[in-house]
Structures are given as C-alpha cells and as structure tokens.
Design a protein that fits this description.
Elements: H1 3-21, H2 36-51, H3 53-66, H4 73-81, H5 92-103, E1 110-114, H6 117-120, H7 123-136, H8 139-152, E2 155-163, E3 172-178, E4 183-185, E5 199-207, H9 208-214, H10 219-224, E6 260-279, E7 284-289, H11 290-297, E8 300-306, E9 312-314, H12 317-329, E10 333-338, E11 345-349, E12 362-368, H13 370-373, E13 378-394, E14 397-404, E15 411-415, H14 427-430, H15 432-453, E16 456-458, H16 466-473, E17 491-493, H17 500-517, H18 533-572, E18 577-582, E19 588-593, E20 595-596, E21 603-604, E22 612-616, H19 626-638, H20 644-649, H21 656-738, H22 743-747
Antiparallel strand pairs: 1-22, 2-3, 2-15, 4-5, 5-6, 6-7, 6-13, 8-9, 8-12, 10-11, 10-12, 13-14, 16-17, 18-19, 20-21
Helix pairs in contact: 5-8, 15-17
C-alpha cells in the first residue's frame, strides 16, 4: 500500500476517534421516517425565514447597491426612452473599503488571563493558541468578509468550529465567516450577540462534492437525501446593468453536473444537570455530568482506622492503590516499624510485632467514594448549566446530534445599527438616498452635456431638406447648410446652462455620504493637508474618532468569539502539541503544551483544565502614522524606557531578526574589544610596575656591587694599615735595639 494512502487511512481512523471523543451521535430512526429533531429544524427554518423576509430583501438590495446595481428596472427603461444612460457614481464602495482597511490595518493581538493563581501560569499558552487558530484559519480574510456584511447588510457573522479531520485527524479549532442570509435567528432575540435566541439555524445549498469532503462519514446519508434547488434568497427589482452575479444567482442552473442538497445546522440552548464535586481531603473540585458522576462515585477510597485517634480518609487514587496493596499483604492491617538502616519509621504489612512501634497498628477499610458523600468528606451539589446542542441534517435526513461544551452559541453576530432585534440596519441602507441623489444629479449633468453637443435647429417647414440638416448638424466640427432666406431665418435652440448650485449639491452629497460612513477625504490621501506632518497626524487622529465606535463593535465581537473558543479548545486539544508563531519582529515563538514532565508525574501546560479569559488588545487593529509612531518610539528608546527589539517592531525593516543578530554580534565584539582594552591597560600598568621594579633592582644591585667594592678596598686598606703598623713597630723596635748602649760602655 502506498505511504500516502496509509497516512490518509490513519487520518480517517484518528478523525473517527476524535469525533467519538467530541460527542457526535446519530440516533437510530425507523426506515422512511424523519427524526423529530429534523422535523423541528425544518419547521423553525420556515418560521424564521417568513419573519425575516422583508429584512432579507433589504439586505439583498443593499448588497446589490454596493456592487453598482443602483437603478430599478423601471428607472432604466425610462432613462433609455429619453436617450440617457443610467450612470452609477459609486461612492459607497470606496467608503466601505476604506473603513475595512482601517479596522483591519493590523492583525489583532490577544491577551489571556487565568481566573485562579494556578491558571495564570499557563494563560500565555491560550493567547498563543488563539493566535495559532487565527493564523491557520486565515481569519484576517474572514474578518474582512464579516466587516463587509456588517457595513453593507447590517450584520456580519463569525463562527468558531471544530474540524476533527484537520491536522491528520488530531483535530483543530477553526474560524470562518458565514453569509448572513444563510443564518436564521430567533426573531425574539434582543442581545447583540443573539445569546438569548432560542435557536440559530444555518441553512445553505452545497454540492455533493463539497459536502462529502466536509462530512465523509455521512456519504450514505447524503446520497439518500433529496436533491434540492430551493434558493431561499429573495429577489429585488434592481437591474444589473453590468451583468453582476450575486450569491445564489446560479444555484438553480448547475444541477445537471453538480447535485445540490440543503444542509441545515440548528443550534439550540438546552439545560444539562451536572454535579459539582469538592473533595475536602485533596481540595479537588470539578464539574461532572451524570455519566461522569456515576463513574466517580464508584471509584475506590480508603479509611485508615488507627488504634488510637480519629480515622483518616484517603481519596487520591495513587495513594488508595498503595494502601490496598499493603492491606492485601497484611490481611487488612499495617503497622509502623523502624527501618533497620536509617531508624526512620516505615509501614509494614500486618499487625504490630515485637519489632514494631507500640500502638501503631492501622486498619485499612476499603470503600467507595459514594460512601464518603453522605459524610461530607466529599461534598456534592447538583446544579443546572446551559449548553448548546447541534442538530445537523441534509434534507430530511439526520446526520448527527452533539452537545457543545459551551454555554454560548459558537455563532457570533456583529450588529451595525442594532434595534434590539436580529434585523439591524446598515450604513448602505441609511445612506442609499444620498447615493441615488448623486446618481440622478450626475445623470442630469451628462444628459445636459449630451444635449449641448447636439444643438436643436428650428427652421421653417419646407425651407430645407430635413434629412440633410440632421446629418450635417449631427456631425462634429463646422457644417455648411443652405437655406431659403425668404422663408425665414433658422433658429438655434440651445439648452439652458446648469446652475453652479447643482455641482455644489453633488459635492455636498458626496461629503455627506463620506461623513456618514466616518471616512473623510484626508483619511483617503486627498484634500488639503496642513503644512506640517504633525498637524496632518493630529487631524487624521481626530478623524479616526468616528471609526473607533466601529472598533468597539469589532473588539466586543472578537472578545465574545474568544470566550466561546476556550472550551472548544480545551475539548479538542487533549494531546501533546507544539505550535510555532511568527512574531511582528520576525522572531519565531514556539509553544508546547499537554506534554508529560520527565518523571511522568504530571502534565506540563495542561490546557484541558482551568478557566481562562481571552481579550483583544484595544486598538491593536487600527492603523497608525508610521513616522509619528517611529519618532515616539525613538524618543522612548533614547530615554531608556524600551529596548531595541521593541523599537524595531514599529519599523518596516524586513530582516529584523538579521538586524538584531548583527547588532548582538557587534555588541559582543564591542564588549570583547572593551574587555581587551581594559586588559591592555592592566598589562601596561603591570609592565610599567615591572619596569620600575627592574630599574630599582638594578640600582640596588649596583649599590650592592659598589658597597662590595668599597668593602674590599676598606679591607685592603685596613690590612695594609695593619701591616704598615706591624712593620713600623718592627722598624722602631730594630732602631731601638740598635741604639741601645752596651753594658760595658755604660760602666765607662
């Protein structure tokens, strides 16, 4: 079997397991019978459609109007009879595109916070994960489509859903926009997000190819369902002069090659009984449905009954298992005895013996957690919580029913002019009269110009050849026509010049239209700007104050969307996963969650538990003047309030990572040079010290040598002096001896 085929088979198997884990159910129904939930979906769909029919027609007209279909069939026929062209000066389209460009100038940034201290440690994982969902869903494009529906029809729709087939069957959360005319909302809903609606239905035609790719497990059900070409979009009296094709216009013309069927998803609010558990021994608390609660109550627990003192209760499954094994060996008892190696008390099976610690025998009583609920060791409280149920069907055939782990609808509406009902007004419908006024004025101006180039000539009957005159006056340039002066002079009848007030009215109407949308000429690069860029920036900022009201609508929708996404993420992302995000600076951020630690004792960054809130950073999607922003950040960088990385984020440098890497290399080299310079200075100092010491040593050596020489000379002088003294004494003695008189001579 080829490797790719094996991978696809494995992916389908994993997707099937994922769908089972997500709670997809297909209740059995008798042959040729329609499930009661499908019947309810069809009945509600017809009711909701009839209630919103007028609003849907207005939505369709506004959609066509934005696309340049701005004249009715009657108006086009009348203008053509007059020889005029139904001209459209579409000022609405550029205003909407400018507003969309401003509101989605940058990708939104999200921040997550945990509701408890333990949740805060991994809150950053949720912000990264939601950013990951935003990127893989190409949500920037989907958001622009929803904003377009918001401005044009009055309501944009975004949906978060779980795709069990994504990521090779591991599943992903995804975001998408929905065509508002495919969404049928309970007309009694008053909440801007339709959270109080009894039901929200999404119904649309899909080809078999698209449906089987989206629902491969229900191919047999799809083939058994009836083929439909019923288009639920209303028709209008506007005429597409340029053959514009709108959504649904071709749905009834392609069944020969692509079979189409109607797919209905009904989202309803239901109540679910759950049990809140609080274990006083381990401080564990959780919410369980009935099935999970019954399983929890049958889990084992242990009561430790000592010889003296109060009994102790153990509910942790790992500890319970250890005590059960100890009790099995010791006949339901264990005691404490000193360890012969360390002397520390340890548990030994059985009752105490001579080597044991007195009165340390403990009886192990194995029970169920249900036995501890009545004793308030485990406290329970039965509560009712809201949940959303999905019933998916094709035609009259049921595909599946599932319960979503959220209390709010995964379909989030973005209302424009909300009148406390699901039928909001739009900017296009409000300012449509101004656009029609502009078209009529321009049509009059063009008609006047056409009339001015074709001058009317009044001549006496029979004076000239009428056909010849019509041909000559119909040509451009100079024409020469002969006539009989006796029958009267021809009279040229020209049109009356249009007043300047008419042109002024058209300019004012354009200004009023842009003012209504909150889009001014300066914000589109036109108009008179101040002489300084600071003044231009200030005026541009003042102009954005109107658009910030729409920004609040957008951010509230994104916050609601993130709130609904969290429980869906916790349900589908249960296995180890690694995501990599490209930051605005160009650096790649890697986030890993749901993985086991080294000793496999607990999961790191476990997102399946805890409660979190994700909010969009205020103003993160709006544009900003890059020069003013760069100067502002440069001043903060020079003041030392931010670092170089934060400053580079606000520039248009493509290779930010390379710049940072090179700057880090330069800094490292500079630090090395500085260190080497300091070492050189130290070495120079050491060398100078060594030189001084060497000179001093030499001097001392010379002095010592001189002292030694002096000592030798002194010794020699002393020796010579001593010798001289000895010789002198000898000489004196000899002299004395020679001059001493003899004894005889003395007598004489």
């Amino acid at each position: 079997m080829p490797q790719s085929t094996e991978k696809n088979k494995q992916s389908v198997l994993m997707a099937g397991k994922m769908k089972d884990a997500l709670g997809y159910e297909t209740p059995s129904v008798g042959k040729n019978k329609t499930h009661k939930e499908v019947i309810k979906s069809l009945e509600l769909l017809e009711h909701y459609m009839n209630m919103r029919n007028e609003w849907a027609t207005k939505f369709r007209e506004a959609e066509q109007f934005r696309n340049g279909i701005q004249w009715t069939t009657t108006q086009v026929t009348e203008l053509q009879k007059r020889g005029q062209t139904p001209i459209v000066v579409n000022r609405i389209h550029p205003a909407i595109e400018t507003a969309k460009a401003m509101l989605t100038s940058r990708k939104p940034e999200f921040r997550a916070t945990g509701r408890s201290d333990g949740d805060r440690k991994i809150a950053d994982v949720f912000s990264s994960l939601f950013q990951w969902i935003w990127d893989i869903s190409q949500a920037n494009v989907e958001l622009k489509r929803a904003l377009d529906d918001y401005y044009v029809g009055g309501m944009g729709v975004l949906q978060v859903f779980q795709d069990p087939h994504a990521d090779m069957g591991n599943g992903e959360c995804m975001l998408k926009s929905i065509y508002p005319l495919d969404v049928y909302i309970d007309p009694n809903a008053r909440d801007p997000f339709c959270r109080d609606a009894a039901s929200i239905i999404v119904a649309r035609l899909m080809t078999d190819e698209e449906a089987k790719a989206q629902y491969p497990e229900y191919s047999k059900t799809i083939e058994d369902a009836e083929i439909s070409d019923h288009v639920r979009y209303p028709r209008t009296n506007l005429e597409a002069i340029d053959s514009q094709i709108m959504t649904g216009d071709l749905d009834t013309q392609d069944n020969a090659h692509h079979k189409k069927r109607e797919y209905i998803e009904r989202y309803s609010r239901i109540k679910e009984n759950v049990y809140k558990i609080y274990d006083t021994t381990t401080k564990y608390q959780a919410l369980y449905n009935n099935k999970e609660y019954q399983k929890y109550t049958q889990e084992p627990a242990v009561v430790l009954i000592p010889t003296q003192g109060e009994p102790q209760y153990v509910t942790d499954l790992d500890e319970v298992e250890a005590y059960v094994e100890l009790a099995d060996v010791g006949g339901g008892y264990f005691h404490m005895a000193p360890d012969p190696m360390t002397g520390q008390p340890i548990m030994k099976p059985g009752m105490e013996d001579l080597s044991g610690i007195p009165d340390s025998t403990i009886e192990v009583d194995i029970i169920r957690k249900a036995d501890l609920i009545g004793d308030d060791i485990i406290m329970t409280n039965k509560i009712v919580r809201n949940r959303v149920q999905v019933v998916a069907s094709v035609g009259s055939k049921l595909m599946y029913i599932r319960k979503l782990p959220t209390e709010d609808y995964p379909i989030v509406t973005m209302m424009n002019v909300h009148n406390r009902n699901p039928f909001p007004e739009s900017d296009v419908r409000i300012y449509r009269p101004l656009q029609e006024y502009i078209n009529k004025i321009r049509s009059l101006i063009v008609a006047h110009a056409s009339t001015s180039t074709n001058v009317k000539l009044l001549i006496p009957r029979g004076s000239v050849n009428k056909k010849e005159v019509e041909q000559e006056w119909g040509r451009s340039g100079t024409a020469v026509i002969e006539f009989d002066g006796e029958l009267g002079a021809p009279v040229v009848a020209g049109p009356i010049p249009l007043p300047n007030e008419l042109y002024k009215n058209e300019a004012e109407a354009k200004h009023d239209l842009e003012y209504g949308f909150g889009i001014f000429e300066l914000m589109q690069g036109g108009g008179d700007a101040p002489s300084t860029y600071r003044g231009t920036v200030a005026i541009d900022e003042y102009g954005q104050r109107r658009i910030k009201s729409r920004q609040d609508d957008l951010e509230s929708v994104l916050n609601q969307l993130a709130k609904v996404t969290i429980p869906l993420m916790q349900q589908i992302y249960t296995e180890e996963k690694v995501i990599r995000l490209v930051q605005p600076s160009g650096l790649i951020k890697e986030t890993k969650f749901n993985y086991e630690n080294e000793d496999l004792s607990y999961r790191v960054n476990d997102i399946t538990t805890g409660m979190y809130d994700i909010i969009v950073v205020t103003g993160s999607t709006l544009p900003s003047n890059r020069w003013a922003q760069f100067e502002y950040y440069m001043q903060m960088f020079q003041a030392g309030l931010i670092d170089q990385v934060e400053m580079l984020k606000k520039t248009e440098v493509v290779d930010t990572e390379g710049v940072l890497e090179r700057m880090n290399t330069i800094k490292m080299l500079q630090q090395q040079i500085q260190q080497q310079g300091e070492e050189i200075k130290e070495l120079k100092g050491d060398l100078q010290t060594a030189d001084r010491e060497t000179v001093g040593a030499r001097k001392r050596l010379e002095v010592e040598k001189f002292k030694s020489e002096l000592s030798d000379q002194s010794s020699k002088a002393k020796a010579a002096t001593s010798l001289y003294d000895a010789r002198l004494k000898d000489t004196i003695a000899n002299v004395k001896q020679s001059v001493k008189p003899q004894k005889g001579d003395q007598n004489e």
